[in-house]
Design goal:
300 residues; Uridine Diphospho-n-acetylenolpyruvylglucosamine Reductase, domain 2; Uridine Diphospho-n-acetylenolpyruvylglucosamine Reductase, domain 3; Enolase-like, domain 1; 3 domains; four-stranded antiparallel beta sheet; 14 strands
Length: 300
Amino acid sequence: MEINRVNTRIIPFRFEYHSPSSLGEAIALLSMYGSEARILAGGTDLLVDMKQRLVEPKHLIDIKRIPELRLLREVPGGLEIGSAVRLRELERSKAVEGRLPLLREAVSSMGSIQVRNMATIGGNLCRASPSADAAVALLALDAEALISGPNGTRRVPLEDFFIGPRATALRPDEILTGVYVPYPPEGAGSSFIKVGRTMLDLAIVNIAVDLRLRGGAVDHCRMAMGAVAPKPLRLRDVEGFLIGRELTSEVLEEAAGRVEASIKPITDIRAAAEYRRAVSRALMRDALKTALERCGGASS
């Protein structure tokens, strides 16, 4: 028995701790130490991995003291969320509640209040879990990742930020500084639904939908799913199919078939692939119906 993999109350190896007070200082540290360094924000995933020796960084760079990473501010056309903003802050934000209810609904489903008081939006996204609740909501909101490194700042569509399980578009010397979330169009309705083994567990399947009608037909649709592919998945084929159509039972059934054709679920400890496929079809129908009601429509 390996005591270091059983007694997880301690971190069983040596590392150097850094606490930069500016973004430039943090980037310089990353440039210096490269793959030997890890970014620490909330630590709800990283510290667990370190205690189990799944990762053993030689340098830990704590970004919580960097002011611009803690900002939650309105900018033209949307909301800019610093990567070190805690999930609980998003959950309690009036700006998020009023203008981005889909994000609030997703964040409120994540873990316990104790976890949300520590976990950060940037940490959740950089974890790049295929089942990440916040990532699914942000994909459906057309969010962009804001990335800084020694060569400057770049913006990446969140859809392109995720490469695969625990893999992102970040280079070794770059930091996710935040996300830009454009406000949905006026009159849009949204829905986030998650199925898990328990309320506090990771999703077996989750879905986010942002929808608007014009003249009874869909004229704006964004849809994303998690835990059904190697990364959080934007369902562009389904979105394109729904534009210009009324959400009749026949259209919903066709859309459900397109969802099933778009996903690639696996069997793991939480669920079988066949179960995920069946749940995905049902969640799509339920999420669309809820979003439809919230934007003032009625399904037939």
